[in-house]
């Protein structure tokens, strides 16, 4: 099958013809139909998050089940699924207390003595984040997929695989935004726009979108932003503080920078909560002014929107089909697997919400 392989950091992905194994008892072989290009792929490509190489990148996808292992009962060939990197074991402390996105049990991958899921001839190729979506097929653990209704369009479904689950989930699960509250979202990419949409669904009274690209701020209004701030035209902290008369109840950082994480904390009102969604590079520390904790400001992280994805994803599909999640507007363009490097480069400029790879 064709796959986009990262062999060296900061080098383009290479389209190679590689092989996948047959499903083990708890594995599922999925034919990839659509895969979004998320900024997290770029963080691994440029080495700000190290990963063993060679690896097939991609982790935001939807497809059709082609074959299942002997113990799989959840899906059958022909079922439509969305993948999720938050594969869960179902028996660890995190899974059993409802925090499945924190599960890291090794049993979800193949053991070193087993043949690898992906290979190029004799060379093992690493599976990326339990998935490796930039490939015509994905061989995954059965706990890395959610079944969805077959009338859901696949490009939109793919976006639920990471960006939407992450952004909406950060708002409704991690921060638990209440109706009537004030929200600021810094960064209006696929994740930030989804957080804005999530805040609108949660009933936030005021949703302030912050970005530096004017077209992104326009797009943010479609997702439910009531106000916009161009961070390139002045201090966004001051702007948000002034607009809200002292700061927001909830802020979200959806870029992955030290400066914007610090801004998220500073734009809170008394008792407010900042949630960092962006992947801040390994080795980077952020600085907070100690006395501000006396205002009971809080700072927290969010992993994949604190999801319970087999419950969340079918709900998000319904929200889309009801017109409440604006997934059509998230798709900036559809591309082919061969154009994956253009998709990654587009994330550097901030001009696109999402490029979605369509497999034929
Ligand atoms: N926590 C998680 O589980 C999780 C999951 C998915 C993605 N992420 C991370 O979320 C972040 C966002 O992902 P994405 O795919 O939406 O990225 P993206 O590149 O599509 O969007 C980033 C946006 O931030 C804007 N921006 C850049 N610098 C800015 C600044 N200084 N001030 C204001 N706006 C600025 C850009 O114009 C762009 O619109 C990334 O770090 C990604 O790795 C985290
Ligand atoms: Zn992602
Ligand atoms: Zn677990």
The average pLDDT score comes to: 97
Q: Kindly give the count of domains.
A: 2
Report on the biggest sheet: 7 strands, mixed
**Structural class designation:** alpha/beta
Task: Kindly describe this structure.
- The protein has 360 residues and is α/β, with parallel strands linked by helices.
- It folds into 2 domains: 2-162 and 306-358, Alpha-Beta Complex (Quinone Oxidoreductase, Chain A, domain 1); 176-301, NAD(P)-binding Rossmann-like Domain (Rossmann fold, 3-Layer(aba) Sandwich).
- The chain has 10 helices and 19 strands.
- Bound molecules: nicotinamide-adenine-dinucleotide and zinc ion (2 copies).
- One zinc ion binds next to helix 3.
In short:
The protein has 360 residues and is of the alpha/beta class.
What are its keywords?
alpha/beta; 10 helices; 360 residues; six-stranded mixed beta sheet; seven-stranded mixed beta sheet; single chain; Quinone Oxidoreductase, Chain A, domain 1; binds nicotinamide-adenine-dinucleotide; binds zinc ion
Which helices and strands, and how do they pair?
Elements: E1 2-6, E2 14-17, E3 19-20, E4 27-36, H1 39-45, E5 55-56, E6 61-68, E7 80-83, H2 93-96, E8 118-120, E9 123-127, E10 137-141, E11 145-148, H3 154-174, E12 182-186, H4 190-202, E13 206-211, H5 214-222, E14 227-230, H6 236-244, E15 248-253, H7 258-266, E16 268-276, E17 298-301, H8 309-321, H9 327-330, E18 331-335, H10 340-349, E19 354-358
Parallel strand pairs: 5-9, 12-13, 12-15, 13-14, 15-16, 16-17, 18-19
Antiparallel strand pairs: 1-2, 1-5, 3-8, 4-6, 4-10, 4-19, 6-7, 7-11, 8-9
The protein binds nicotinamide-adenine-dinucleotide and zinc ion (2 copies).
